[in-house]
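Example record

Each entry pairs one chain with its bound ligand, protoporphyrin IX containing FE.
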Amino acid sequence: MPDAPTDAATIREAQAPEWPMPRAEGCPFDPPPALRTLTAEKPLAKVRIWDGSTPWIVTGHAAQRALLSDPRVSVDERLPGFPHWNEGMAAAVSYRPRSVFNSDAPEHSGYRRIMTGPFTFKRVEALRPTIQKITDDLIDKLLAGPKPADLVQELALPLPTLMISELLGVPYEDHEFFQEYASRGIAHNVSAEESGRNFMALNEYLVRLVEQKAAEPADDALSDIAARVTSGDITVSEAAMMGLGLLIAGHETSANMIGLATVALLEHPDQLAVLRDSDDPKVVAGAVEELLRYLGIIHGGQRRIAKEDIEIGGEVIRAGEGIVVELFSANRDAHVFPEPDLLDLRRPNARQHNAFGFGIHQCVGQQLARVELQVVYGTLFRRIPTLRPAEPLDQIRFKHDRLAYGVYSLPVTWG
Ligand code: HEM
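Structure tokens for the complex follow.
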């Protein structure tokens, strides 16, 4: 006869709710109701994912930070029991090169050192005038064009795409190709065939670029990465994977934040006024942190696996059990953020959010993202104070089917 703890565990597994969970109709900025219940009741629980397995879900802020900085927690997707996002990601284990995304320390530190150079605080601050110029040019073009206009196509996507293409030395003319494949690759449901096709297309493109940069280096990040191939530190596939990771993470994320935050601000005119009426860089920087907290955008849960038994939050995560870290729910944890569902651009501790992750895998591009968002939000509503949605909220197509949340398009008008 099974003992009591096993019984309890079996019942919990059988009752584990399906993950991901649907958002409530008409509440595009809030966590799904069932996720709120989990977050309120326990920082750790079990959920059922696409393959029927039941990893832990970690929703509490403190538990997330503890696990994300715990060396017993791994991102190694090859380990049996790893809670893959979908069939496509599971199949990719056999061909995806090693990188920051799927390696632990010390292997991870080697890859990460090669990637971080252009994204340090100092280097990114030096780019602020360029980011401001691109933003102003895009807004000039928007104002000179027809109304209504799609803010995603006119501003949210081109700004981060232009910046990351320029930094990496990837031709911007190819943006439709890589934006399309990047978006397909982060769908909730991707089959093994589709994932293989997406990866092949992007990988071939990046391998070609790395080889070109190795032969004829230029003053860009991909040339620096290619030089590490020439010196024998990494392989061409590893270099292409670094370039690919930076290219995708570098545009899709910030673009979603710009689009989604614009909708949220247009829906909260009192908060929009904070940005429109202030040119104090501290107020703008604080507003960006609060928007990152309130919206997250990396929804779907970061994936990890326990390498050893870990006692946490009154539970024991056993070695070999999967862990899903839903960063977005920690950003609405009332233990850290009073009235967490309120968008308050002057919230004093907004910067404690987990929107960029925590621990050794914390976002490489966070300074770049911050400056892009500070420039856009600090400029858009001051230059177009009458900006308003051209469609009601319920007509806007939100990315419920993507791991990076946002809007597919945002028709706006002004004047
Ligand atoms: C608002 C924009 C962004 C958000 C919300 C965001 C969010 C995140 C999060 C949550 C992680 C941690 C993933 C994990 O622990 O599993 C991460 C990692 C990463 N991000 Fe970002 N990101 C943004 C922009 C960028 C940009 C602009 C770049 C590129 C320049 C970038 C490059 C990366 C890379 C390379 C990693 C992997 C780091 C590692 O595993 O060591 N991200 N990002």
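The pocket of protoporphyrin IX containing FE is lined by residues 100-101, 112, 119, 164, 245-246, 249-250, 253-254, 257, 297-298, 302, 327, 355-357, 361, 363-365, 368-369 (CB under 6 Å).
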